[in-house]
Every structure is written in C-alpha cells, then in structure tokens.
Design a protein that fits this description.
alpha/beta; Rossmann fold; seven-stranded parallel sheet; binds NADP nicotinamide-adenine-dinucleotide phosphate
C-alpha cells in the first residue's frame, strides 16, 4: 500500500491519538474520529447514537483520496462503572450504552469495511483494540465492558476466518492497563498500588507501546497472522 487511507476511531486522545500519530509518521493518510470534531482531520460522531457508524463510514469515504479506505482501526471505547446496586433500568441503560459504543458500533463499522473490500476495493484490514478484560473478565462494576470486549474478539475471529480468502485480514490487540485517562480513573477507584503489584512488569503500558502494535497490524503484519490476538499487559494475564 502506498499512502494507505486509515480510519481510526477514538483518535482524540489516549491510545487512539498515539495510533494516529504513529500511522501518520509512517506516511498513512489518517482519518480520525471522536465524539466531537476537534480538528479538520477528525469526524465528530457520538457512537451512542445508532446512526453514527453509517455517518462515520460515509464521511470517511467522502474524505478519502479515491473513495477507498484500506484499514479500519476500531479503537474508540468507553469504560464507565455500572455497580450492580443501581436500579434495574439504570444498570440496563449503562449495559446498553457500553455494548453499543464498544461492540455494536465497532461491528457496524467492520461490516461496512468488509462490504467495501468485497464490493470492488480489493481487500483490506481491520485492527480491533479489545482488552485483556475480554479474556480475563473485569471488576464487579464492569460486566458490560468485559462482555463487549469478549464480543469484539469473537467478531474479529469471525471476520478473519470467513473473509481471509477474499483478501480481508483482521487483527486484534488486547491491552492491559495503559496510561490514559481511562486507566487513571480505574486505578484511582480500585487502589492503584495494589493493582500495579499484580503486573509483573511493574508498570502499566504506554499508549505508544499499544500504538506500535496497532501500527504493525495495520501496515506490516503478514497476512498469515490474520485472526491473531496480541496481548500487551506486562504479563499480568498470560494465556
Ligand atoms: N487504557 C487502558 O487501560 C485500556 C486497557 C485495555 C483496552 N483499552 C481500550 O483501548 C481503547 C482506547 O482507550 P483509551 O485508554 O485510549 O481511552 P480514552 O483515553 O478514554 O479515549 C477514548 C477514546 O474513545 C472515544 N470515545 C469514547 N466514547 C465515545 C463515544 N460515545 N463516541 C465517540 N467516541 C467515543 C473518545 O473520544 P472523545 O475524546 O470525544 O471522548 C476517545 O477518543 C478503548 O477501546 C479501550 O477499551 C484501554
């Protein structure tokens, strides 16, 4: 791919901003996304809105050089507490929000991408930013987050297995704690030093470390790696 066009969701900060910077440094044309457009390279759309994925995909196609997107990076994600002591409707509302933002929106974007690559644009790649929680589970307040990431991993494997022969590759990355606002809130709420003691590396990952893995999957990973899930958690969870 010469100057591939790459759509990165959740590129305003944290891991997504590091991914966008790493890919741009490699010469990729990055179309960013966040809940609000904060610069000219970013599509603004709240993924809690069911109409957002279709709008994002269409706008990304409109912005791309030749009506072609080569790589989709599903990175946007929400990590918010949902204690089981909430009322039924509050708990269910929070469940639905997280499933929509972290799984349904990523799935819809993946579907648009796969159709795009099957209907003319010959092949492409999806890179999913999932989580260690998708395998290991999460805290009592985060059933929804773990379920969404587990679903993302299963969705990723399905794409990899069903469309590889047609030129569509799918890769997934499972970070453990990574030094962003998302992990900061969690570490503060759950007692940071105790959780750090559970990471043999002795520290959380940096966004740049996760971005290097995503960059590799997007631009360099051999096709034979399709279907892979790459862990990056300081050996806090070894499968
Ligand atoms: N940090 C960790 O410890 C960790 C660990 C494992 C997996 N991950 C995964 O890594 C990915 C990035 O996480 P991060 O730590 O970089 O998070 P972050 O710093 O909180 O950034 C989240 C990104 O997602 C976007 N986003 C969130 N909700 C959105 C919504 N409703 N509509 C549109 N955009 C939305 C945000 O956009 P706005 O700026 O507009 O809000 C932002 O760009 C997520 O999928 C997360 O689950 C993170």
């Amino acid at each position: 791919m010469t100057q591939p066009t790459i759509l990165v969701t959740g590129s305003s900060r944290g891991i997504g901003a590091a991914i966008a910077a790493a890919l741009r440094a490699r010469g990729a044309r990055v179309i960013g996304h966040a809940s609000k457009a904060h610069d000219a390279h970013t599509i603004g759309a709240d993924l809690a809105d069911p109409t957002a994925p279709a709008r994002i995909w269409q706008e990304a196609l409109d912005r791309s050089a030749h009506g072609r997107i080569d790589v989709l990076v599903n990175n946007a994600g929400l990590f918010s507490a949902n204690p089981i002591t909430l009322s039924d409707i509050e708990w269910l509302d929070n469940w639905e929000d997280t499933l929509r933002i972290n799984l349904t929106a990523a799935t819809e974007l993946s579907r648009y991408a796969v159709r795009h690559w099957l209907e003319g644009a010959s092949g492409g790649r999806v890179v999913h930013v999932a989580s260690r929680a998708g395998y290991r589970g999460d805290s009592p307040d985060h059933w929804h987050y773990a379920a969404a990431k587990g679903g993302m991993i299963a969705m990723h494997k399905t794409i990899a297995r069903q469309y590889a022969r047609l030129g569509v590759m799918s890769y997934a990355v499972c970070p453990g704690f990574t030094d962003t606002a998302m992990a900061g809130d969690y570490l503060a709420s759950r007692g940071g030093p105790g959780l750090l003691a559970d990471i043999p590396l002795g520290r959380v990952a940096t966004p740049e470390e996760i971005a290097r893995i995503v960059e590799f999957c997007a631009l360099d990973a051999p096709e034979s790696m399709t279907g892979t899930v790459i862990d990056a958690n300081g050996a806090s969870y070894v499968r």
